[in-house]
Design brief:
Layout lengths: L4 H30 L2 H22 L5 H24 L2 H13 L13 H9 L6 H13 L3 H8 L3 H18 L8 H23 L3 E2 L5 H17 L4 H14 L25 H17 L6 H14 L8 H14 L3 H15 L1 H9 L9 H13 L3 H14 L1 E2 H15 L1
Parallel strand pairs: 1-2
Helix pairs in contact: 1-2, 1-3, 1-5, 1-6, 2-3, 3-4, 5-6, 6-8, 6-9, 7-8, 9-10, 9-11, 10-11, 11-12, 11-13, 12-13, 13-14, 14-15, 15-16, 16-17, 17-18, 18-19
Length: 421
């Protein structure tokens, strides 16, 4: 008996959900076992194909994530067995036997990085790779982002990002980068890359680049958990504290960001009674600690946490201290002079000193952010507030062309109708 097409489609959606939520966890478990990222990813792909065939007939297992790990691990072991028999090396035969035994035994970690995903992040952030390659590779591995999504996150063409990912995996393989926990003396040199990866993973969860879900809550939770572990590993590192504070403060607004009908709710329109005060209190305390430890030169994450704290402390949109936020963005731009930081600073200037001034500050960003939908949507919003409706409509249309997230697209379409009527 063959499953119906509707049943197959339903299972396909379930598989897609599991992969989106648990890709990093599954890959991390596989990599720890087989010590080969390419093999782990190939084995997971085979397991997904098997699930698409078996689940419509047998039903979705109670623990889809565990099923994928077992299936992929079996497939990887089959590949390793063939490799081992060809080479005939005794040490590999003994390791493979150990791997077989681990199929029925839960391994007990004995190192500081007991979390498999955090271990994998530190491994992927090997100094043999350029920083951008480290970030891109880990986003694909941990967050399960597609090449298209990663390219949008880095504001580069898709073919460029595809080449970077191929080169990164090849370099790891050719360089013989060991799949083990880095030694203590190796952790510090990888910390900046690890923090950047966690930050980008959180951003993808906080505002998904594509799909019909604006917030990927599971990914936000993963990033926050990883941030806590890093902060515990490096208690004297202010940027680790700052990043954790930033994520907590941003995530505190999760319940207010999406309306009951699924519509996007911007910061100024959110019901602030829905904000998580416990997360805000912890985030503000961590922000203060990070700023105190980093005097007189706070880092980018600590400064962003300070900006988020100013927003969190405002009981209403009117009470927001926009001049202070604009000033903080000015300092942040000195530390991290990127076009996206400049865009956020321009928005703060607009609310602190006038919308026309904000638009003037955005003018210089038209070229570097030409393919960034949030630039066009932010510019459209300021044009709308200045009653320059025709220009606002054109900017909203350009944002729609570039945006891949359906929740954001619905918001932009609604705003476009508002300035076109």
């Amino acid at each position: 008996m063959h499953p119906s097409s509707d049943r197959t489609d339903e299972v396909a959606r379930e598989i897609q959900r599991v992969v989106r939520e648990h890709h990093g966890w599954v890959i991390a478990r596989l990599v720890r076992a087989v010590r080969d990222l390419d093999l782990a990813e190939d084995a997971l792909q085979e397991a997904l194909e098997a699930a698409l065939t078996q689940w419509p007939v047998q039903g979705v297992p109670d623990s889809p994530r565990a099923w994928l790990v077992r299936s992929a691990r079996n497939k990887a072991i089959d590949v390793l067995r063939r490799r081992t028999m060809r080479r005939g090396k005794q040490e590999e035969i003994e390791w493979l036997e150990t791997l077989r035994l681990e199929q029925t035994q839960a391994p007990v970690p004995e190192d500081a990085l007991s979390d498999d995903m955090l271990r994998l992040i530190f491994i992927c952030c090997h100094p043999a790779l350029a920083m951008e390659a480290r970030l891109a590779l880990t986003l694909r591995t941990i967050a399960g982002l597609t090449t298209d999504e990663i390219a949008r996150a880095f504001l580069v063409p898709v073919p460029t990002m595809a080449q970077r990912l191929v080169r990164a995996t090849k370099k790891i393989r050719d360089a013989g980068v060991p799949y083990r926990v880095p030694r203590q003396d190796e952790l510090d040199e990888r910390l900046s890359g690890v923090l950047a990866v966690i930050y980008l993973v959180f951003n993808e969860g906080y505002t998904a680049t594509s799909g019909d879900t604006h917030v990927r809550r599971a990914l936000c939770s993963v990033a926050i958990d990883l941030g806590r572990q890093v902060a515990q590993l490096f208690p004297a590192e202010p940027e680790a504290l700052g990043l954790l504070a930033l994520m907590l403060l941003q995530d505190s607004r999760r319940e207010a960001r999406i309306a009951e009908d699924g519509a996007l709710v911007l910061l100024e329109a959110q019901d602030r009674t829905l904000w998580d005060q416990t997360a805000i209190e912890e985030g503000i305390a961590l922000t203060k600690a990070a700023l105190e430890q980093s005097r007189p030169s706070p880092g980018p994450y600590s400064l962003q946490a300070a900006i988020a704290a100013v927003h969190a402390e405002a009981r209403s949109p009117e009470e927001t201290d926009w001049p202070q936020i604009a000033g903080l963005y000015g300092v942040l731009y000195e530390r991290a002079p990127t076009a996206v930081v400049a865009l956020n600073r321009a928005v703060a200037i607009a609310f602190a000193f006038g919308f026309e001034r904000g638009l003037e500050a955005m003018d210089a960003l038209a070229e570097p952010l030409a393919h960034y939908h949030l630039f066009h949507s932010a510019r459209a919003d300021l044009l709308r507030r200045c009653t320059r409706y025709a220009e606002a409509a054109a900017a909203y249309e350009r944002a729609l062309e570039l945006c891949e997230n359906e929740t954001e697209r619905a918001f932009l379409r609604d705003r476009l109708r508002g300035v076109s009527s």
